[in-house]
Design a protein that fits this description.
Elements (H helix, E strand, L loop, with lengths): L4 H23 L13 E6 L12 E3 L2 E3 L16 E8 L6 H10 L12 H8 L8 E6 L14 E3 L2 E2 L6 H9 L9 H11 L3 H4 L1 H9 L3 H21 L28 H17 L5 E6 L17 H7 L2 H23 L6 E6 L15 E4 L10 E9 H11 L20
Parallel strand pairs: 1-8, 1-9, 4-11, 5-8
Antiparallel strand pairs: 2-3, 4-10, 6-7, 9-10
Length: 423
């Protein structure tokens, strides 16, 4: 029997679409939609050099807490209902700058708990996502000291860096270069890409209906669940509006040319990278995104705030200048969370602000600051400040994995995650 090109395409499409389902039917089980309470996207936001505990943590606990006037985290009052302040999380068995930078996301600076991978890369490797990229790593002034354990937080395996891209223009080209020709052609290119991504379910609708008619009632129910799940994923990745243009993505605009190694350009580069990160998530380019502001022992001078000392030096002084710099970082986190909320991304996301140290002058890692934002599809009750009482940060890593629907068993006894975090 001779098949037409369309028949061959349809057959292949059905095989790819329904193969897992048919295998499950044969085995008496079905792949259902992700349960409520699993995030669609993970965003990690890093700032360096620890903090001043007495000027960081809010007053009160549970849902009754306030950010003290003049404190480092006072800017978070603008998003208080969207965050969980996570106190009492310790790095167990290591502290100081370099071990903290290496072990913060891997679980252990001497090899790691996910085969050497950082939690974001471990999660990315486990997700069955059809997004263009498994993960996206962005940085701000991360490269002047080269790629080494003091300057890298993301690992795909033991000693293998997932290097952040610190040049916004290069990042834009990688993310959007194939769909935006620039200038007046940008809108047409975006629409053309959307047209090419026309729903495979619509294309195969008649064939799927024919297959469904041949199934029993129980199998039809399973197929309906399967197709509903695929449709939900498809719509989240390729939403369409009038004229075929992605309604939730829009036409991306290339950032201005900036010297990625310039300290003076630090705020402008950071703004461009934050905007790219949010846009990448909005366009469904990757389920996992990270943004790394500089690195541990960061020498960046916050000259735009009128400061003259480097950030690391200020972290040892623990003076008002350091508080001023840290408040600026808090404002950047607020900006990202607000942008995600305005674009409808926050409710089904998990956003985590991470640091590699606790007390910057003592170089310790007792009650390392972590802030979570987003509702994780309804599983994370925000607007709380929780003291976990000195638990291993492995529990935090487990909760990040759990929030993305990924097995956290490599963390062993800590795989249950942070107690009381999720509902």
């Amino acid at each position: 029997m001779k098949l037409t090109r369309r028949e061959l395409s349809v057959g292949l499409g059905l095989a790819m679409l329904c193969g897992p389902l048919l295998n499950d039917i044969a085995r008496g089980r079905v792949a259902r939609a992700s349960p409520s309470g699993v995030a669609k996207r993970l965003f990690l936001f890093f700032t360096p050099n620890g903090t001043i505990p007495s000027r960081y943590w809010p007053q009160g606990s549970g849902t009754s807490f306030t950010f003290a006037p003049g404190s480092i985290t006072e800017p978070l009052a603008a998003i208080q209902g969207d965050v969980v302040m996570c106190k009492g999380i310790d790095f167990v068995g290591f502290d100081n700058h370099e071990p903290g930078m290496h072990g913060m996301l891997t679980g252990d600076p001497n090899g790691g708990s996910f085969g050497g991978a950082s939690v974001d890369q471990y999660v990315a490797s486990k997700l069955a996502s059809s997004a263009r990229f498994k993960s996206i790593e962005l940085g701000v002034l991360t490269d002047p000291w080269g790629a080494q354990t003091q300057t890298r937080m993301d690992y795909t395996g033991r000693g293998v860096f997932a290097n952040p891209q610190q040049d916004p223009q290069a990042a834009f080209k990688r993310l959007f270069g194939d769909v935006v020709a620039g200038g007046a052609d940008a809108g047409a290119a975006t629409s053309a890409m959307a047209a090419r991504r026309k729903s495979v379910l619509d294309f195969l609708r008649a064939d799927v209906a024919a297959l469904r008619a041949q199934l029993g009632a129980n199998e039809r129910h399973k197929m309906d669940d399967h197709l509903t799940a695929i449709r939900a994923v498809e719509q989240s990745l390729f939403p369409t509006g009038g004229g075929g243009a992605p309604a939730s993505c829009g036409t991306p605009s290339a950032p201005s040319a900036l010297d990625p190694n310039s300290q003076a350009s630090f705020p402008a580069i950071g703004k461009a990278q934050m905007d790219l990160a949010v846009l990448a998530m909005q366009c469904g380019l990757a389920p996992v995104v990270s943004l790394q502001w500089s690195h541990t022992v960061s020498p960046v001078v916050f000259s735009w705030l009128g400061l003259t000392g480097g950030h690391h030096d200020l972290s040892h002084a623990q003076n008002d200048d350091f508080v001023k710099a840290e408040r600026w970082y808090a404002e950047q986190f607020v900006y990202v969370v607000q942008q995600m909320k305005q674009r409808g991304l926050l409710a089904d996301s998990l956003v985590v602000w991470v640091k590699e140290l606790a007390d910057s002058s003592l170089h310790n890692a007792k009650s390392v600051p972590f802030v979570m934002a987003g509702n994780v599809g309804g599983a994370l009750r925000t607007g709380r400040s929780i003291d976990f009482g000195g638990v291993s940060h492995h529990k935090l890593l487990a909760s990040i994995a759990q929030g993305m629907g990924v097995d956290a068993s490599p963390l062993g006894a800590d795989a249950d995650g942070l107690p009381g975090l999720f509902s």
